[in-house]
């Protein structure tokens, strides 16, 4: 095979700063609006029935269009898609911050989801094609993994500060300076390798089937949370999602230029990464939700204090990602970081099953948060890198989109599943302990905590399952080669085999 030296961009580390900033903006948005929602609802007169759509409109657009966004990045070029995503996300945020009624706010949230679906996969795929040296790749993905894992908690902090000291509208306006800085920096320093573009035509049937199927799936879990798992609309959405996604896979196996080349997901290592990441996010999303309510409602923390209570978890994630995962990724197989990482996180989650009305933050919640952060940071870092490692450059965008899709769908499942479990356990506890309760308020709080701990037990099991999948399915060795590998191509071996880049 003819060989050519790989071009190494001298400005790649500066580019990382702006790519990471854009990723932080997208991840923050998943949680920053949650804390501001009660204030926005009161200000705009949003009904209780429409309140959930502030979250759902974003989730549906973002989750449904991620694969489309990933393929657009491969076709248009990742830098161009990245810039379009940034500008669009900033514009949608400005509309959301200036919203004067419910419709305007919901429309802005949906637009944020659309442009986020362009921005997120293009950001990750830019890293995949710019950082090919294994040690440099480890450091770059260490930063990216820390942001992906800890950004949600940072969003809770920032959302609390902005809502309490300024106004809920600033949870939208804050995205604008992020986007401007990232866009100006990207224009100046990002140079995408030309050979990484994909000149194939866009798979329109695949776009329609994947987008409608993912929207039906995410919306199905949203309806399950509000209407119940056996409700007609919920079941109908799940059936529709299954039919659409099966049809999508059939189409993808037959078209010449598929939206999602099956070679990307058929690889054993990437399949294991997508599955274990999705499961881990199921557990983590439930944790953010329950612990936020626990600290504000049960413990009486302010929004700002609640946000800062999550800081040790963020610190743990940064440490696990940059100091453990990044340092060991080129020395040990990914499964020996991902599996133990998820298990350490499950131990932290296990501690949180012991929370009660008078639980001490320093004695129990703090060490639990540190273990969760260290474990998830250590696991996320090699997972993010391995998900795009060995993918042909033409498929980097869609492989990156699959990472985000597994996280987004995992978040929707986690919120619905664990919320349903918590609500059911809360109701049962309240009924069985009503006669012996000293006061109605005490019974209400104790029932709430019982519901949270019941759901957290499920989250422990889910994290253990994520660890088992990572250890058994991910067979790649340490990431010694940053170039393309046969594992992403047609007819490739099950595990990645390094070859020279042409």
TrEMBL record:
The reply to whether Transport figures as a keyword in the UniProt entry is: yes
Major facilitator superfamily (MFS) profile domain: residues covered: 15-478
Query: Which key words are in the record?
Result: Antibiotic resistance, Cell membrane, Membrane, Transmembrane, Transmembrane helix, Transport
Q: Where in the cell is it found?
A: Cell membrane
Q: Enumerate the InterPro entries for this protein.
A: EmrB-like, MFS, MFS_dom, MFS_trans_sf, Sugar_transporter_CS
Q: How does it sit in the membrane?
A: Multi-pass membrane protein
Keyword set includes Nucleotide-binding: no
Coiled-coil residues: none
Transmembrane residue ranges: 15-37, 52-70, 82-104, 110-129, 141-162, 168-190, 202-222, 228-251, 272-295, 307-324, 336-355, 361-384, 455-474
Question: What Gene3D superfamilies does its record include?
Answer: MFS general substrate transporter like domains (1.20.1250.20), Multidrug resistance protein D (1.20.1720.10)
| Alphabetized NCBIfam families for the sequence | efflux_EmrB (TIGR00711)
This chain's protein is named MFS transporter
Origin species, per record, is Streptomyces hygroscopicus
